[in-house]
């Protein structure tokens, strides 16, 4: 690692991703209203906010699931159009969705490689090779996992979550979006995901992390952006704030130090 | 990750015999039901049901519905339905009938029974079927009209386009070469049937062996060798036994004599010639193999099942589910046209009511064969077996002398019962 994300920002280096003045509405309701966030390589930015604040909607615009109404997305400073999930993948953006987005009737390996199957020289899907790769990555992520030949509908919530995480980290993402990745995980598995985030960060991957656990955000993130009712309350440096500051931003919708309106 | 205690690939977990053998218990149940059905009819008809002649007829009667049922599996797996297959079969059949009896011989002046007529006809028919199917798929995928509505409309439209094209008349006789695809008019003879049977057996065994080697190569658990050998023997026995039965149905001597006369020869005294594998059944087998490979070993097939399991997940994984829908319905249309070739060639003419009620038979075959209407689940071999069970039921009852209304009452009840058994079975299994 050469420079920390903080140093990069201080130098005014071009961010890995910039989401600039993004808005989207659903039937008249502004789910995301002129929100700007950005991400440096090797940086973890937490997205916080109450239920329905617009966090998932914002990152779904980046992952190609939704189309923004206005605003601009830049990657390495260059404006990009992301109109579907394939575009996002082509920019090395990988996403762990809150809903996990798994095909329940397929096994772990088929889900891991969905849309990017390994094929034999004759162009046929190579299930054995995919299962072998899948076993390799699970050895790191969740060594107790054994149900490789069962549809993921037969897995526990946490095991399903590991499949979704494995899928996002397997394909050399540059930009990783994690929407409540530890929601269904036990304490041990949550710890493993925390370690995974540190590891990926050290490799220079930029991560948007949505999490309701303020302590986890304080521990893992470099910065945090707080949203309320579709609007950005503010973005703060984790080093400059306390848990309580973040909580009051989430609940009151004001930056620390700002006078009550 | 800190926790890197390496573990051997699981062998610790006790697996019961069925899991170890990777047997599809549902398939076994269906085969069991089919065998019981056949034996019961055989007893009731004093042994007339399980004769080479009847088995031969049963298979050629099943082909048309079975071919379409393989396509219906893909349609239903992706949570759609196609109510227009019988009508589309009629339209493609009408188009082909007009092409081979009017357009080519008269308008283009090629004359009757020109050697290229059958090929041009079939190409045109398959193209029309594929295009119509693609059009249905486009309306379902891109315009987001429910498949039920699109194909309900298609059901009325194509049934009557067929009528319009032929003025509601029976068109025949069809091209002499075209009739080869119909069953009795086009069989491969005993020698070729044996050759095909042996080639098929070798290919099946090679496939099994390759699958085992691929698994073993990655260190995954494989079936015990005795199970593999038993399974291989069952497969070889089934294929070769089937060929043997078809080969032992002899061409009636009167018919044989006429065939010799047609060639200007006289039949040698006491000559016995078996029919062998009908071309139409060979087509069904080819369709079954290709569709199974498509379902299991191609990206297209994988995306079909993923989309059926969770359409949103498929879309988020970068699968173009709209285009996928177009392709699935286009394939369905292609298979309808292929069925139309077989069905009209079997009857030696195109009749206005060709394919009537086929949509229901095809859907029933797929569903009896284990395709779940909730999507994501279904097999090609199941659908074909479903078609075979329905046909066996129908012709068995006809042979026993059950009245026509009762035949349909039984078939309808069996459909509902089969789905109920399926639901109970899946609940037991703990799957949804
Ligand atoms: N597809 C949609 N159609 C209509 N409204 C939507 C849609 N998706 C989200 N919304 C609305 O947009 C708002 C923001 O939702 P979003 O899922 O982004 O919240 P969130 O911050 O992720 O909340 P949570 O913490 O509960 O996950 C909500 O009011 C929601 O009802
Ligand atoms: Mg959310």
Question: Secondary-structure element order of chain B, as H and E?
Answer: HHHHHHHHHHHHHHHH
> What's the N-to-C terminus distance of chain B?
34 Å
**Uncertain runs of chain A with pLDDT below 50, 5 residues or more?**
none
User: What's the CATH C level of the largest domain in chain B?
Assistant: Mainly Alpha
Distance between the termini of chain A: 43 Å
CATH superfamily of the largest domain in chain A: P-loop containing nucleotide triphosphate hydrolases
Mean pLDDT metric of chain B: 89
Number of strands of chain B: 0
Helix count of chain A, per DSSP? 9
Number of helices of chain B: 16
- For this structure, the quaternary state is heterodimer
Please report the total strand number of chain A as a whole number. Answer: 10
Pfam family, one (chain A): ABC_tran
GO cellular component, one term (chain A): plasma membrane
GO molecular function (chain A): ATP binding; ATP hydrolysis activity
Protein name (chain A): Ribose import ATP-binding protein RbsA
Tell me what you see in this structure:
The complex is a heterodimer of chains A (261) and B (432). Chain A has 9 helices and 10 strands. Chain A has 261 residues and is an alpha/beta fold. A 6-stranded mixed β-sheet of chain A has the order 6-7-8-3-9-10, sandwiched between helices. A 4-stranded antiparallel β-sheet of chain A has the order 2-1-4-5, covered by helices on one side. Chain B folds into 2 domains: 42-186 and 278-389, ABC transporter involved in vitamin B12 uptake, BtuC (Orthogonal Bundle); 187-277, no CATH class. The longest helix of chain B is centred in the middle third of the chain and has 29 residues, at 189-217. The model of chain B is unreliable at 1-14 (pLDDT under 50). The interface between A and B is large, with 43 and 43 residues. The complex binds adenosine-5'-triphosphate and magnesium ion (MG). Adenosine-5'-triphosphate binds at residues 26, 31, 49, 51-57, 98 of chain A. Magnesium ion (MG) binds next to helix 2 of chain A. Chain A: Its EC number is 3.6.3.17.
């Amino acid at each position: 690692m050469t420079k920390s994300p903080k140093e990069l920002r201080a130098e005014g280096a071009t961010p890995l991703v910039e989401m600039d003045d993004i808005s989207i509405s659903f039937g008249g309701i502004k789910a995301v209203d002129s929100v700007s966030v950005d991400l440096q390589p090797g940086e973890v930015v937490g997205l916080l906010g109450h239920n329905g604040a617009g966090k998932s909607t914002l990152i779904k615009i980046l992952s190609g699931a939704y189309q923004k109404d206005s605003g601009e997305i830049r990657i390495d400073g260059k404006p990009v159009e992301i109109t579907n999930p394939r575009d996002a993948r082509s920019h090395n953006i990988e996403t762990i969705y809150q809903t996990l987005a798994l095909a329940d009737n397929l096994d772990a390996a088929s889900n891991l490689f969905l849309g990017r199957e390994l094929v034999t020289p004759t162009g046929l899907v190579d299930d054995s090779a995919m299962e072998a790769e899948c076993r390799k990555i699970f050895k790191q992520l969740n060594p107790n996992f054994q149900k490789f030949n069962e549809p993921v509908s037969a897995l526990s919530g946490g095991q399903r979550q590991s499949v979704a995480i494995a899928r996002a980290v397997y394909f050399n993402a540059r930009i990783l979006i994690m929407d409540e990745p530890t929601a269904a995980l036990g304490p041990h598995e949550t710890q493993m995901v925390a370690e995974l985030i540190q590891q990926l960060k050290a490799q220079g991957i930029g991560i948007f992390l949505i999490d309701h656990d303020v302590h986890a955000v304080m521990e893992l993130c470099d910065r945090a952006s707080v949203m309320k009712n579709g609007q950005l309350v503010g973005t703060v440096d984790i080093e400059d704030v306390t848990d309580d500051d973040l909580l009051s931003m989430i609940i009151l919708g004001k930056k620390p130090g700002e006078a009550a309106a | 990750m800190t926790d890197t205690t390496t573990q051997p690939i699981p062998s610790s977990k006790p697996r019961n015999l069925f899991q170890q053998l990777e047997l599809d218990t549902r398939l076994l149940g269906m085969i069991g039901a089919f065998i019981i059905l056949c034996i019961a009819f055989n007893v009731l008809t004093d042994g007339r049901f399980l004769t080479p002649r009847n088995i031969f007829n049963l298979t050629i009667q099943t082909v048309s519905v079975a071919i379409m049922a393989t396509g219906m599996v893909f349609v239903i797996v992706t949570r759609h339905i196609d109510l227009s297959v019988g009508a589309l079969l009629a339209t493609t059949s009408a188009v082909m009938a007009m092409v081979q009896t009017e357009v080519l011989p008269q308008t283009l002046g090629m004359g009757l029974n020109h050697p290229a007529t059958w090929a041009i006809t079939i190409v045109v028919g398959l193209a029309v079927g594929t295009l119509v199917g693609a059009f249905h798929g486009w309306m379902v995928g891109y315009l987001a009209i429910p498949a039920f509505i699109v194909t309900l409309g298609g059901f009325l439209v194509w049934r009557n386009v067929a009528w319009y094209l032929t003025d509601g008349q029976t068109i025949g006789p069809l091209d002499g070469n075209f009739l080869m695809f119909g069953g009795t008019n086009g069989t491969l003879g005993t020698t070729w049937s044996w050759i095909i049977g042996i080639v098929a057996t070798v290919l099946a065994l090679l496939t099994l062996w390759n699958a085992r080697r691929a698994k073993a190569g990655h260190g995954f658990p494989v079936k015990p060798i005795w199970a593999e050998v038993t399974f291989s023997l069952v497969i070889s026995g089934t294929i070769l036994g089937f060929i043997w039965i078809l080969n032992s149905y002899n061409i009636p001597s009167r018919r044989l004599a006429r065939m010799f006369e047609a060639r200007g020869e006289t039949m040698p005294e006491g000559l016995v010639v078996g029919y062998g594998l009908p071309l139409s059944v060979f087509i069904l087998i080819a369709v079954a193999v290709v569709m199974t490979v498509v379902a299991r070993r191609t990206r297209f097939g994988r995306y079909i099942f993923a989309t059926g399991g969770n359409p949103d997940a498929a879309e988020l994984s970068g699968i173009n589910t709209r285009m996928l829908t177009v392709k699935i319905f286009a394939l369905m249309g292609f298979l309808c046209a292929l069925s139309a070739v077989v069905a009209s060639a079997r009857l030696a003419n195109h009749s206005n009511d060709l394919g009537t009620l086929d949509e229901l038979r095809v859907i029933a075959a797929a569903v009896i064969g284990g395709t779940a209407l909730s999507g994501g689940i279904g097999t090609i071999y199941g659908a074909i077996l479903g078609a075979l069970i329905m046909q066996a039921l129908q012709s068995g009852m006809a042979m026993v002398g059950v009245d026509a209304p009762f035949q349909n009452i039984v078939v309808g009840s069996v459909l509902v019962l089969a789905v109920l058994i399926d639901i109970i079975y899946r609940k037991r299994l703990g799957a949804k």
